[in-house]
Amino acid sequence: MVGAQEYWGNREMNLREKAKALKQEVTALVLAMRDSRTPWYAKALGGLVLAYALSPIDLIPDFIPVLGLLDDLILVPLGVALVVRLTPETVLTECREKAKEMGRREASKWGAAFVVLVWLGVASLLIWLIKR
Known about the structure:
Helix 2 packs across helix 4 and helix 3 packs antiparallel against helix 4. This protein has one domain. The protein is globular, with a radius of gyration of 16 Å. It contains 6 helices and no strands. By secondary structure, the protein is mainly α.
């Protein structure tokens, strides 16, 4: 499997192959977050990044021109790359192999709940500011 650092710089991979590699990397990170050898700070950051990456709801909806795709194209890969750096290489290697065997990514209800809560918080803040 191609690691997060390698597939973005690989010009021979098309966009579909890069997307598939990113999905496998995210699945590997889900497995790594469950591993006891992963440090707590990598798990904490990984939990946030993975919840957002696997959420069916985006913080910035995709239909908003330019901004809607920036979170998917920039924020998620940067977050994944940072978590990969914080996770021990031995754990990542094992989890990448398991992810390759699985061939799919897991859905995250917690990620969707997090994004919904953020949007509710923003809406509540806006309502409060307007009424004030």
